[in-house]
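Support request from a user on the community tier.

User writes: "When I paste my structure tokens into the form, the page sometimes reloads and wipes my input. The last time it worked, I copied everything first. Here is what I submitted, just in case something in the input itself triggers the reload:"
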């Protein structure tokens, strides 16, 4: 029987002329009034021209209406209250509000900080005015306040503001800060400094000191503010100033990768030798060098970086190994693959290491098996079983699954099948325990699982030449559960004779 495919939205709209399209939108909004705010928001993005890449000039005419954004915030908070009153626990406020904040960030990325400020004022004021409704249900404003902090900073630093505009923004931020119990110190500092803050000006001119871009001790949000400035400098293609600021503020990853992206490969690799301190910095630089076609330099940086502290061992090790294999250097691929395996054991990497190790496999295998036995991370049961069964280490596989939840039945079945010739008594005891817990509880909807476990019991008895013991056990089950018709019927259907 064939299935008729639904035409795409594009093809459906192609059937309509301009008037019919307008009529369709009007009818949809009439049926779903909440679409109006979304339409206005998207129209603002579509119809607002993107400024040039030069420093943004203040736009004296706003093209964005703030009302739809205020309305959307109110609606998000009302929906949350309704949702909680219906007995649900999930908190989707932050996720939906962050989507709105992203609209302002999108304007910033087009160089239009003025309209971004309009949107942020609408969102922030609506949050402050209506937050009491959700605060009674335990809603926390920390996550959304931090995102607003960053967005306000970017909008402020993207637009050249008049003194009067700065005063207005400062007054608003300070008021909201008090009323909402939020910390807007970061955008207030960005507003105070702008791009004319003397220590910052010195840094952007290449005069770098141990204090970086600050007078005295830097605040806790110094890194966040530096990253926002770097984002703007990159957008405006002010690359040398970007490098100066990254270097001054200790943003090593940004500094090294920008050198690489600018094609200054030798300078980047030389700087990495003294400035690179984390695996994440090395990974970012290595990927940048690869994109630049500097493959040997990328491998060298990666090999050095894998010795540094960090939290990306698996991804970085796998990436480095793949690059070394691409260059035809199996020896260079072995060590990073082992790093990846140690971070997250997998059967695929186990086999890959065997291929790379060649004649040294036996000694390497001993090391890998020790890693597998001692690895305590979650979610690797199947990988461990795959490796142990591949090597015929049945007892090790049994140790993995003995107390494993029956949720992992597929993995447990595989171990039981392999263990029947080796340790049938374990199979019988473990499978009986799992089956009897279901049958004794009278969980009829799970009887088919109980019978699956009983099949393993039967196989272990029969293959170990204990047919009489199986018959005795089966008779006992039938006597105990004779009234459970569904279970007895499954016994017959599954050949439990």
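"...and here is what came back when it finally went through:"
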């Amino acid at each position: 029987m064939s299935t008729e495919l639904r035409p795409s939205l594009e093809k459906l709209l192609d059937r309509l002329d301009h008037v019919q399209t307008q009529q369709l939108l009007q009818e949809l909004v009439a049926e779903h009034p909440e679409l109006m705010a979304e339409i206005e928001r998207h129209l603002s993005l579509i119809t607002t021209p993107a400024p040039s890449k030069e420093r943004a000039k203040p736009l004296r005419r706003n093209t964005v209406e703030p009302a739809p954004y205020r309305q959307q915030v109110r609606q998000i908070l009302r929906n949350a209250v309704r949702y909680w009153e219906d007995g649900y626990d999930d908190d989707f406020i932050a996720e939906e509000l962050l989507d709105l904040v992203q609209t302002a960030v999108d304007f910033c990325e087009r160089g239009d900080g003025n309209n971004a400020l309009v949107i942020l004022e609408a969102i922030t004021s609506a949050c402050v005015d209506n937050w009491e409704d959700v605060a009674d249900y335990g809603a926390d404003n920390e996550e959304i306040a931090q995102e607003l902090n960053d967005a306000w900073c970017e909008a402020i630093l993207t637009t050249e503001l008049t003194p009067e505009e700065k005063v207005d923004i400062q007054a608003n931020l300070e008021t909201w800060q008090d009323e909402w119990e939020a910390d807007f110190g970061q955008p207030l500092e960005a507003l105070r400094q702008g791009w004319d803050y003397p220590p910052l000006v010195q840094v952007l001119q290449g005069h770098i000191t141990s204090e970086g871009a600050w007078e005295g001790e830097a605040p806790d949000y110094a890194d966040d503010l530096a990253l926002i400035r770097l984002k703007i400098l990159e957008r405006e293609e002010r690359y040398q100033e970007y490098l100066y600021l990254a270097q001054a503020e200790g943003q090593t990853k940004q500094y090294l990768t920008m050198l690489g992206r600018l094609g200054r490969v030798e300078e980047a690799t030389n700087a990495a030798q003294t400035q690179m301190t984390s695996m994440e910095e090395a990974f970012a630089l290595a990927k940048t060098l690869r994109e630049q076609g500097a493959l040997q330099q990328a491998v060298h940086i990666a090999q050095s970086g894998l010795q540094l502290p960090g939290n990306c061992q698996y991804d970085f090790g796998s990436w480095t190994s793949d690059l070394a294999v691409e260059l035809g250097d199996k020896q260079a691929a072995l060590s990073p693959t082992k790093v990846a395996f140690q971070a997250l054991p997998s059967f695929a990497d186990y086999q890959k290491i065997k291929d790379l190790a060649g004649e040294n496999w036996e000694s390497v295998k001993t090391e890998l098996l020790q890693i597998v036995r001692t690895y305590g991370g979650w979610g690797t049961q199947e990988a461990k079983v795959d490796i142990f069964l591949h090597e015929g280490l049945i007892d090790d596989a049994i140790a993995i699954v003995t107390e494993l939840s029956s949720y992992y039945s597929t993995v447990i079945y595989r171990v039981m099948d392999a263990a029947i010739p080796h340790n049938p008594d374990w199979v019988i005891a473990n499978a009986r325990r799992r089956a009897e817990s279901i049958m004794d509880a009278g969980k009829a909807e799970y009887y088919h699982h109980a019978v699956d476990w009983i099949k393993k019991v039967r196989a272990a008895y029969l293959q170990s030449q204990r047919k009489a013991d199986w018959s005795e056990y089966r008779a006992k089950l039938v006597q105990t559960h004779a009234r459970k018709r569904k279970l007895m019927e499954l016994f017959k259907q599954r050949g439990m004779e």
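Agent notes: The reload is a front-end session timeout and is unrelated to the input. The chain has a mean pLDDT of 90. Residues 230 and 242 are 6 Å apart (CA to CA). Escalated to web team.
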